[in-house]
Design goal:
Layout: H1 6-11, H2 21-27, H3 30-40, E1 45-48, E2 58-62, H4 69-86, H5 92-113, H6 135-156, E3 157-159, H7 163-184, H8 191-215, E4 216-218
Antiparallel strand pairs: 1-2, 3-4
This protein binds zinc ion (ZN).
Amino acid sequence: MFVGHYAPAFAAKAIKNSPGLAAGLLAVQAVDIGFFTLTYFDIEKWRPNPDLPGMRKIDLYYMPYTHSLVGCLIWAAVLGAVAFALSPQGRKAIAGIVIAGLVFSHWLLDLIVHRPDLALYDDHDKMGFGLWNYPTVEMPLEIGILLIGWAIYLYASKAKGWFGHVTPFVVLAALLGLQYIDWFMPVSGDHTQFTMLALVAYFGVGALGLLLDRTREAR
Ligand SMILES: [Zn+2]
């Protein structure tokens, strides 16, 4: 799952005094940012497997630190604590809870689409409902999840000026464009290239969150 992960970050803006959208958009992908960084150093591992059915023909065969249930809960707790520490008085608790929740939402959404490669802990007891094997179900579901989150954001916020009416649609178009590339770009097997593209995309989307925060405010 890629852009579907952003739905909880958008929806969280409906919560009073929730942290900035950029932080939320990075939080929901935090364990993937970790995964791509660790695969660059060959600590977590994937390999192309053209024989897999459906879409996303890569075998994610070792990701204990970022995508095990226990691993992801640790990421959520640590990043929630960081958000708590960095937030101003009066907003600390809500920031910590929202960021921790958003980090963990990644695992729950991954569980729907991943083949059984999400461990309970370390590399044991792997889970995944495997909707990637059924693109005709996965693709509309992922876009639908994104649109629900985006619509909640649109409803929960209002434009500061005329540009703020346009930016949500610009961001949505950018996300759909990135998802198109993600779905239809062939996987080369080049780990460095894959890591760099992924990190540019994740931080680029974070920057789009800054754009939205500058041009819109809570209703
Ligand atoms: Zn993931």
